[in-house]
Amino acid sequence: MRQSDCLDLGNTESQSQTLEEQTPGFRDDVIRGLSKREKELHCKYLYDEKGSQLFDQICELPEYYPTRTEASIMQQNADAIGHRIGNDAVLVEYGSGSSTKTRLLLDHLDDQRAYLPVDISDEHLMRTADQLRSDYPGLDIHPIVADFTAGFDLPDEFETTPVTVYFPGSTIGNLRTDLAVDLLSEIAKQCHSGGGLLIGFDLDKCPDRLVAAYDDAAGVTAKFNLNLLSRINRELDGDFDLDQFKHVAIYSEEHSRIEIYIESQTDQIVTVGDAEFSFSEGERILTEHSHKYSIDQFESMAAQAGFAMDECWTDDENLFAVMHLSLQ
């Protein structure tokens, strides 16, 4: 979301950074992406208020194993993870969403100093922060509205404090490998000496299981993906006919990743404001990809960014991994 003001929530401080200050505007990104020979739209724009709500529904679907598997890993290893993070922790969570898994951490951390959830959807973030403040009245909470892929500043009081960055949900997989290393390098700078990173990532596995997780039988992921076209219609004066587009998810063996598209079902012309775009039948817009890793691959990536693995936890089926890393 692109709201310039965040309200103070009682004794909860908030920091707002408008997305226009951090990245080119939504309109510019859409026009640029749809003008490419291979059309694309940035996945961060999937997460408006409705998109965030739909994603929360996706996380509850039977096909979507990442959320429940990561939560199970966190539950089974909460004491060990809490020990790695340590006491008096400043926890910064990237892409906090509804902060469901965060509660598993908060319940196993002693004398935590502060929690700073970071999310692109301001309404979603503020509602979640308000609920957390109610449930954890002694916790100092500083919600930050920001696109963490574009960089953001912590409140002044934490600028030199060692922090633990919590980055769940395999969101790192949405980035190309080189950009993922770049983001990990920025996280390393934010951690400061003595800080660390707790990160969840999806492990490579059977393509059929991966595709099912991103193309569920109930069609919730399709609604989530196509909601981006609704957002363009609403905010940018677009005229996408959603009935003429469909959701597509495929697995790329070459890149070890799921690729998510919106596919035109007919030859058509669409306008966004004054701009006009032609689509041929079967032409696709790339909206998201999700890389899958081996533990060795991810450890190597993190090492390029200055991190060393302390410990890694997985589930019994080796579907997902949660790794704690410290600065080298």
CA radius of gyration:
20 Å
The portion of residues assigned to helices is 25-40%
Mean pLDDT, to the nearest integer, reads: 90
Write down how many β-strands occur, each being a DSSP E stretch of 2 or more residues: 13
Low-confidence stretches: 1-24
Backbone shape: globular
Strand order, largest beta sheet: 1-4-3-2-5-6-13-12
* Main sheet record: 8 strands, mixed
Distance from N terminus to C terminus (CA atoms, Å) equals 35 Å
Q: Oligomeric status of the shown chains?
A: single chain
Give the name of the CATH superfamily of the largest domain: Vaccinia Virus protein VP39
Q: How much of the residues is beta strand, in percent?
A: 15-25%
Reported CATH architecture of the largest domain: 3-Layer(aba) Sandwich
What is the CATH C-level name of the largest domain?
Alpha Beta
Keywords: Methyltransferase, Transferase
GO molecular function: L-histidine N(alpha)-methyltransferase activity
Region (Disordered): 1-24
Biased composition (Polar residues): 11-21
